[in-house]
Amino acid sequence: MTEFINSIHNKPLRAIAEKVVQDIPVSEADALYMLTTNDILELGLISHYLRIRLHKNIGFYGVNMNLNYTNICELRCPLCAFSRDEKDEDAYLLSHDETEAKVKEAVSFGIDEVHIVGGLHPQLKIEYFEEMLRRIKQIKPDIFIVGFTAVEYDYFAKINNIPLEEVFRRLMDAGVGALPGGGAEIFSHKVRKVIAPKKISGKRWLEVMRTAHSLGLKTNATLLHNHIEDTEDIVDHLSKIRSLQDETRGFKSFVPLTYHDANTDIRAKRASTTGYGDIRLYAASRIFLHNVPHLKALWMYVGEKMAQTLLRFGVDDIGATYHYEKVVHSAGAPTPDYGSESHLRRLIEHAQLKPVRTTANYDLLAGCAA
Ligand code: SF4
After folding, report:
1. Does domain 59-357 have CATH number 3.30.70.270?
2. Which end of the chain is more exposed for a tag (fewer CB within 10 A), N or C?
3. Does the beta carbon of 83 lie inside 6 Å of ligand 1?
4. pTM of the model
5. What are the structural domain ranges in the chain?
């Protein structure tokens, strides 16, 4: 332990390392420092120390498919390249038969999980989602379903005129096992009103997650970054997630999402993120969010080489195969829309870690060391 502390020479980082060793949550000022330091190697030592303490030599990945059931969305957020108006030529809504065909095909490739998100479609009632989930479960009863963002649940409650708890109960009953963390974007009101003015507030997003957690659902939490936010907005976002986690312990994983601005109404006027920027963000998140067990670097967003590198900077999960992903690819992500399982395993192995295939609930599947 002393040896670890002594290996940190940068004074503010050494003070942070001392807190980490003693399990003392680091402060917002510490987060701000970590998000701006150029001393990424010593920052990396601290985040890696924590990552090893939490997950030993394991690197997680998943084998899944994405199901984006419709791109028709009432909100048409400026940040979004995926959504369409109903009358648009390339607007779509999957019928249950189309959903079934896609899931059957992906199941034949051996997926463990379906990740479902879509637009806010004004005509879709809750029965559509119940039927969709039941049909998916019929294809493969043990398939894990990560379904719908907090924004969608809030919308389902409103357009069906039923309490949020009832929406959760009905969709859990039909097969939802966990929630993705989308829709959090960034909680800062001043930023949110520019990038997603009609979307639920950050406060409401947290309330919906609190409700999900109270019903026993585990969820992810995301952060959309590299658009018009500043570093203080990121610290505020992390801080609100940490506070809710202190209360509920319902977040399984924190997932930063790099903003891609192609085909959106928010041209970020920012160049793409840099290696230093990505490393600072992931390492600082690992250290600040000490109470959130997993940190995910989606290879599709940061690129596979950076996702692999981040496994040495606090990350324990590089995401999944994601057959059929549409949301980030509509916004110009240059990665392919799926990675093969063997490639993801190779990335993890080449980082000197043991690949473990898992689902969003971190139920360990093949190759488990635990
Ligand atoms: S980000 Fe989500 S809520 Fe906003 S327009 Fe796109 S699909 Fe709709």
Report:
1. no
2. C
3. yes
4. 0.94
5. 59-357
